[in-house]
Amino acid sequence: MSTLTRELDSEPAEEAEETAAQRSHRLRWVVLGVLALAQLMVVLDATIVNIALPHAQSSLGFDNADRQWIVTAYALAFGSLLLLGGRLSDLVGRRTTLIIGLVGFAGMSALGGAAVNFDMLVTARAGQGLFGALLAPAALALLTTTFTDPSERARAFGIFGAIAGGGGALGLLLGGMLTEWADWRWCLYVNLAIAAIALVGAMLFLSDHKAEHRPRLDIPGVVTVSAALFSIVYGFSNAETNGWGNWATICWLVAGAVLLAAFVWLQAHTKHALLPLRVILDRTRGGSYLAVFIAGIGMFGIFLFLTYYLQQNLGFTPISTGLAFLPMIGVLIVGSTVATTVLLPRFGPRWMIAIGMLVAAGGMVLLTQLTDSSHYASDILPGLLVIGLGIGMSMAPSMQGAISGVSPEDAGVASATVNTMQQVGGSVGTALLSTIASSAATAWASSHARTTAPKQLAALAAVHSYTTAFWWAAAIFAIGGLLAGLVIRGGKLPTTAEAVDVPPTVNEGEEALAAAPTVSTPAVPTVSAPAAPVAEVTGPRSIEGRVLDLTGGAVPGATVAVTDATGIQVARAGVTGEGRYAIAALVSGVYTAIATAPGFGPQAQTVRVPEGHVVTRDFELESGTVLAGRVHTDDGPVPALLMVTDQTGVVVARSQAESDGSFRVLGLEPGTVAVTATAPGF
Fold first, then answer.
1. Which of 47, 201, 392, 605 is the most exposed place for a label (fewest CB within 10 A)?
2. Residue 205: phi, psi to the nearest 5?
3. Is residue 6 part of a domain?
4. Are 506 and 514 in contact (CB under 8 A)?
5. CB hemisphere CA count around 168 (13 angstroms)
6. Is residue 440 situated within a structural domain?
7. Distance from C-alpha of 308 to C-alpha of 600, rounded to nearest angstrom
8. Do 560 and 610 reside in the same domain of the chain?
9. Model confidence pLDDT, tens digit, residues 93-110
């Protein structure tokens, strides 16, 4: 039997960390404002410069062929470095990473605003993308760790998702106002004010959140995925300019696909993966990432072609163009808030995302009916309102589903993957729909050249190209809704990341344990066990709730155990016939509540217990196969964390032993597995 070696922990450090966490929780709505500002700045800069481009081109004297690089440089740096930024936030701390990102983004914005030539402006835009890749995933990861209460988290993600979905339209409005009333340089200088407010808020109100087990940096993975994303984004950007048949477009896209495949292979065969495959192979998270990607394609198509139509065909000014999108933003905000606070907790993400995508597709179909003489109120506004509702219903639940159930040490990279999907989706959408629109315009002009007056030919061809792009965007949204319904798992989201997840990396004490011989044992069928005794709580209580199965029925024989920050069990209770349990009064602090039952997989939740308050926590357990045993040393049992790997080394399950050392791991396939135990202080 392997022997575990005890290490002494620093109690004052733990107390200080707990105090910082409590302060962050108390100021959580202020923290949301800080994070929302940071996210708004990143999203704004994807579109705010677009309206200013003609004025910047006139001021700096660069030609039309170079103009696209003002947009592309930002997208390339941002999209290709997001995963690295997410993992760095796990390594050095999310507050630190956010602050570095804010300062750097502001500095690059100042450089771009003061640009005296094209090269200086492109460098600044690339720098904005680089620092945006640091602060965007850190902001989303901090949002995840700050809001632990399910209902509050839903509202927070509704607001955050609305900003992610509507920030592009706000960028068009703000860009038009600054360009028309001030100067194009203020489209960059405005970031200094936003970053300054967010920076002060981050310094005053944010507490740092580092993963307890910090991962090592996967250098081969960083190089491979950065090169892959760069190749893909550049390839699609080149397609927009030179067409899909251009040799450079083909080479860049093929290189991106090959590098992406190599990255996936590396992640499956490395201990310290940049993007652990467990993050994306979960059906709910994987489907949510796909939904964010598809929504990015459609949203950028809306902003791009409708902006052209409003300004070039209907004669809107830059400001009036931005104002035209405001009703869509309002509906989007309302839709995302209602979706995450009312509908998502009741129905889960699967049908919310699917229906939202289909609603957005319907709004796109309304826009396909536009002509050269359409009116905003009767022909454009209805489509915008429907699209805003659809994106609001799908985007915020997608962002919440994309980070649901992820372990704390993976929160940064999971958040970065959300931003990566949106950014790459936008790049793909812009290139794909622009190429389709261009081909449609050319074909229409050729076929109608003899029957249409020369003065009207270009305008009518342009309108036809826009409506063709809207048809394609409608089809893309519809496909997204279908895929969401097929891929995303049914049921509700986990209320929080499983607190008993074993980290993918090992520290020095764990390396010694991993080096010892592991015991291979076959998974055994589930065996029945007597119901746990019901703990009668007649006095004050701290935690109460129900333990249910996925159908909403009570789970017989379930037990809820509560451990403190050191992993020591401090309370335990069985359930009544209705599945109800109650934990007696606890000292205020942060605890882990773990619900288990014979024949069901365990579920863990982090519970913050305020002084004199009762916290309600319900559990939903899934049935499965059980692997049972005990963890102990010569001195007695150890309430250790268990990690189960199959014969290929892939982690297939995690659990936590009880105070008597006993453990039950569920949901395993029959066969041989290796079980590794770790515990705080050993």
1. 201
2. -115, -20
3. no
4. yes
5. 23
6. yes
7. 56
8. yes
9. 888 889 999 999 999 999
Q: Give the range with max mean pLDDT: 68-77, 234-243, 380-389, 548-557.
A: 380-389
Closest CA to 291 of 430, 458, 164, 457: 164
Are residues 353 and 392 part of one domain?
Answer: yes
Together in a domain, 234 and 281: no
Which of 47, 164, 41, 191 has the alpha carbon at shortest distance from 422? 164
Same domain? 532 vs 403: no
- The proportion of the chain whose per-residue pLDDT surpasses 70, expressed as a percent, equals 79
Amino acid residing at 638: V
Q: Which of 240, 273, 306 is the last residue of a domain?
A: 273
Locate tokens 């620093």: which residue? 10
Q: What tens digit of pLDDT does each residue of 143-191 get? A: 777 776 666 766 777 777 667 656 666 777 788 788 778 888 998 999 9
Q: Which residues does 31 contact at the CB level (< 8 Å), separation at least 6?
A: 24, 142, 143, 146, 201, 205, 206
Residues 460 and 325 in one domain: yes
- Dist CA 346 CA 110 (whole Å): 46
Please state, in angstroms and rounded to a whole number, the distance separating the CA atoms of residues 244 and 233. 13
| Same domain? 517 vs 643 | yes
Residue 408 pLDDT > 80: no
pLDDT at 508: 33
DSSP 339: I
457 vs 67: CA distance, rounded Å: 26
Q: Is the pLDDT of residue 523 over 60?
A: no
Give the DSSP letter string of 353-378: HHHHHHHHHHHHHHHTT--TT--III
Any idea what the CATH number is for the domain that residue 620 is in?
2.60.40.1120
Q: How many domains does the chain have?
A: 3
Verify that 470 and 516 share a domain, yes or no: no
- Residue 124: phi and psi, rounded to 5, are -65, -40
Do 154 and 345 form a contact (C-beta atoms < 8 A)?
A: yes
What DSSP line would sit under 194-253, residue for residue? Answer: HHHHHHHHHHHHPPP---SSPPPP-HHHHHHHHHHHHHHHHHHHHHHHH-TT-HHHHHHH
Residue 14: pLDDT over 80:
no
Query: Domain residues for 259?
Result: 218-273
How many angstroms from the chain centroid is the CA of residue 226?
18
Q: In whole numbers, what is the pLDDT of the chain averaged over residues?
A: 77
Residue type for position 657: A
CA distance 188 to 191: 6
Report long-range pairs for 621-624 (Cβ below 8 Å, ≥24 apart). 621/547, 621/548, 621/549, 621/550, 621/555, 621/558, 621/595, 621/596, 621/597, 622/549, 622/550, 622/666, 622/667, 623/549, 623/599, 623/666, 624/526, 624/599, 624/600, 624/666, 624/667, 624/668
CA geometry: angle at 84 spanning 281 and 508, to 5°? 80
* pLDDT score recorded for residue 149: 66
% of the chain at pLDDT higher than 90: 13
Mean pLDDT of 448-457: 78
* 86 phi/psi in degrees, rounded to 5: -65, -40
Residue 247 lies in a domain: yes
- Pick the residue with more confidence: 429 or 328? 328
Choice between 611 and 477, residue whose per-residue pLDDT is larger: 477
Residue 111 pLDDT: 94
What is the model's pLDDT at position 209? Answer: 56
Same domain, 515 and 652: yes
> Which is more confident, 210 or 515?
210
**Structure tokens, 244:** 């899909």
Is residue 180 assigned to a domain? yes
Sign of the CA dihedral 88, 94, 96, 97? positive
